[in-house]
Amino acid sequence: MPSISSYEQLRLENIKKNRELLMQLGLDKPIFEPTEKVVKKPTATKKRKGPDTPTSENAEPDTKAQRVSPSQSTPESGVRRSSRNVGKTVNYKREIVKESPIPVAYSSGVKVAENEGPMGREDGPRRCDPKTYGSIPGIAVGTWWPTRQGCSADAIHAPWVGGISGGKQGAYSVALSGGYDDDVDLGYAFTYTGSGGRDLKGTKTAPKNLRTAPQSSDQSFENNASFNKMLQRSCETKKPVRVVRGFKCKSEYAPSEGYRYDGLYRVERAWMEKGMNAKGYLVCKFAFKRLPNQPPLPVRASLDSMGNSARETLEEDEENPEEVEDEPKEE
DNA sequence: GGGCCCGCAGGG
DNA sequence: CCCTGCGGGCCC
After folding, report:
1. Residue A154 vs residues A9, A122, A124, A137, A263: alpha-carbon distances, Å
2. Residue spans with biased composition (Acidic residues) (predicted)?
């Protein structure tokens, strides 16, 4: 058999290019190399900058009601879990980042102080309008939901299925669910693939009843309900975009279960490239960068079987005071 | 595990 | 109304 498939080859090429672009965009975080051995530097395990004041509200005009009442987050046995996760064994000890106030995930039946954090509702009426730019009052960065329905109920990301939600001035929110193999997630920056170019087939009796399908044509910034155009607009308007990471996202920044609100990002670039599909159809790509003055991202221990903890020198505080980055005022 | 069906929210 | 869409459950 060939030493490396063409698919894998393209994937590596795309990943390399995407990562280089992210670096050009000023990413100053350690880079996770999934395909190469992690060179462990003699890490100074000591943490500089101990007290990290958690009062960094994320550049939000209205900071009251930021607290999520913890009394609601004691579900114990009352929380329904999707059957997919039943019986799944997850070692949460490996995922906990002590420095982070954000939970990486909850576990069914396992809920300890270390991974406890804000938890959203699973359903119910909306209290806020998801069609807004920027943060949602009362929903802290790091809030976690078992399913996408909860993200929608709490107005963080409205669609139950779609990855992009937006309006005339750009996207309100996106969901990272690992649907594209060549997306690069560096935590504080990532590349994202647009939607469209899929032929939503179905069965003969129920045509178009599928929600996803393989790529069958080029994506574009114009067609496809203009989801991609929304993100292109975000790149122009620089409106903040809410980002949700899902468990399917193959990233050390993704929760192992459910979906987590990871705060506000900004679209820095929009371009097209050959995507990860057999025919080499073009896809729309976007580079996101996280806005400063937000709680640090949780990082789970490296998932590779070699046991490389690829992440030692994480916490060096970034947030250079330049660019105070208030979200552009809502017009 | 994979296939299929399903409801839903949103934008035009 | 029409269409889409990085879900989720159920059945096999």
Report:
1. 40, 8, 9, 10, 14
2. 314-331
DSSP string, A187-224: SSEEEEE----B-----SSSTT--S---B-S---SSSG
A218 half-sphere exposure, CB direction, 13 A CA radius: 7
Nearest nucleotide relative to A229: CA against C1': B11
Instruction: Let me know: does A121 contact A75? Beta carbons within 8 Å.
Output: no
Place of tokens 């993200």: A151
**Distance set, CA A263 to CA A15, A20, A36, A161 (Å):** 24, 23, 29, 20
What tens-digit pLDDT sequence spans chain A (331 residues)? Answer: 556 678 888 889 999 999 999 988 877 655 444 433 333 333 333 333 333 333 333 343 333 333 333 333 333 333 333 444 444 444 444 454 444 555 555 433 344 455 566 889 888 899 999 999 999 999 999 999 999 999 999 999 999 999 999 999 999 999 999 888 889 999 999 999 999 888 777 666 666 778 888 888 899 998 766 899 999 999 999 999 999 999 998 888 888 889 999 999 999 999 999 887 767 889 999 999 999 999 888 877 544 433 333 343 333 333 333 333 344 443 3
How far is residue A73 from each of residues A143, A164, A315, measured CA to CA in Å? 11, 28, 27
Distances (CA, A) of A254 to A202, A216, A258: 31, 28, 9
Determine the distance from the C-alpha atom of residue A109 to the mean position of all C-alpha atoms in its chain, rounded to a whole number.
25
Contact A45, A213 (CB under 8 A): no
Å from A46 (CA) to B2 (C1')?
48
Nucleotide nearest to A131 (CA to C1'): B10
**Strands A241-246 vs A170-176: parallel, antiparallel or unpaired:** parallel
Rounded CA–C1' distance between A48 and C7, in angstroms: 42
Phi, psi (deg, nearest 5) at residue A110: -120, 110
Tell me the CA–C1' distance in angstroms for A204 and B3: 14
